[in-house]
Amino acid sequence: MLARHAAGTIACTIEGKVDEPFGPTVTEEMANASAGQQERMRYLCAMLGLTDCLGHVRYQLHHRTVSALIEGDRFHAADAAMIVHSFSPERRWFADFAAFVELLGGAVEEGRPAVVGGLSKRLILGWACGDQAFRLA
User: Fold this and answer.
1) Average pLDDT over residues 117-122
2) Which residues pair with 79 in a beta bridge?
3) Could you tell me if 86 and 128 are in contact, meaning their C-beta atoms sit under 8 angstroms apart?
4) I need a labelling partner for 16 at 20 to 30 A (CA). Which of 63, 91, 92, 122 fits?
5) How far apart are CA 125 and CA 82, in angstroms?
6) Which residues contact 48 (CB under 8 A, 6 or more apart)?
7) Is residue 125 a contact partner of residue 81, using CB atoms and an 8 Å limit?
């Protein structure tokens, strides 16, 4: 999704969650990875400014965040954002999100987006809590 704001255009990706995890960790994803999958992981890490992707961090967070950066580059956006829209009343998997943000050099603060610099554009990472009234039973 693209949107406009005071500083220009922002490319956003949204990762919707209820109780399911962010998929396998990088270590789990790479355990039986083909040469092509290993190359893709190196690409994702490079796009995120990482020389080494830590194994305990969730692969899906890497992938979704890089998608925002790619789309931001494609549309010449000033910024990119990856937002987790969680409908979990227990905020399940927030610790995984926080570990990812910290890996990228951001600071996790309740109710505030984290801003990461030093990439192809400014990256904003956020956690939004969905209203339980809209949660499907």
Assistant:
1) 89
2) 10, 122
3) yes
4) 122
5) 5
6) 62, 65, 66, 69, 104, 119
7) yes
pLDDT at 135: 67
In the chain, what is the greatest distance between 2 CA atoms, to the nearest angstrom?
A: 45
Phi, psi of 132 (to 5 degrees): -65, -20
Q: Is the dihedral of CA 80, 22, 131, 112 positive or negative?
A: negative
CA distance 131 to 78: 30
Query: The tokens 């890996």 sit on which residue?
Result: 103
Whether the per-residue pLDDT at 136 is higher than 80: the answer is no
Q: What is the mean pLDDT of residues 108-127?
A: 91
Between the CA of residue 37 and those of 3, 33, 47, what are the distances in Å? Answer: 31, 5, 15
> What is the per-residue pLDDT across 63-97, written as a single tens digit (0 to 9) for each?
999 999 999 999 999 999 999 999 888 888 999 99
Residue 9's SS3 state is strand
